[in-house]
Amino acid sequence: MADGAEVEVREVSRQRIVEAAADLLALEGREAVTTRAVAAAAGGTTPGDLSLVR
């Protein structure tokens, strides 16, 4: 089971990813919203970085 700190990190990461995807959608349209682009915009480097958020 995840402890409070781990849950907080996941929630912050999830929020950052959602905001990055929303920004890409608003600024560049749906074609710009790829896993690679969202990961990069959220501060990660690869789509695998998105798997940290469950």
Secondary-structure map:
Blueprint: H1 4-28, H2 35-41
Describe the structure.
This protein is an all-alpha fold. It has a single domain, classed as Arc Repressor Mutant, subunit A (Orthogonal Bundle). Helix 1 crosses helix 2. The relative contact order is 0.17.
The largest pleated sheet is described as: none
Question: What CATH architecture would you give?
Answer: Orthogonal Bundle
Low-confidence stretches: none
Q: Tell me roughly what share of residues is in helical segments.
A: 55-70%
Whole-number tally of structural domains: 1
What's the β-strand tally?
A: 0
Strand content: under 5%
CATH class equals Mainly Alpha
Based on CA atoms alone, the radius of gyration comes out at 12 Å
Mean pLDDT reading: 86
| Shape, per Cα inertia axes | elongated
Helical stretch tally: 2
Would you list the SSEs in sequence order as H and E?
A: HH
Structural class comes to mainly alpha
Distance between the termini: 13 Å
What name is given to the CATH topology?
Arc Repressor Mutant, subunit A
Properties at a glance:
single chain, about 55 residues, mainly alpha, Arc Repressor Mutant, subunit A, about 0% strand
Report a brief summary of the structure.
This protein has helices spanning 4-28, 35-41. The chain is mainly α and 54 residues long. The mean pLDDT is 86.
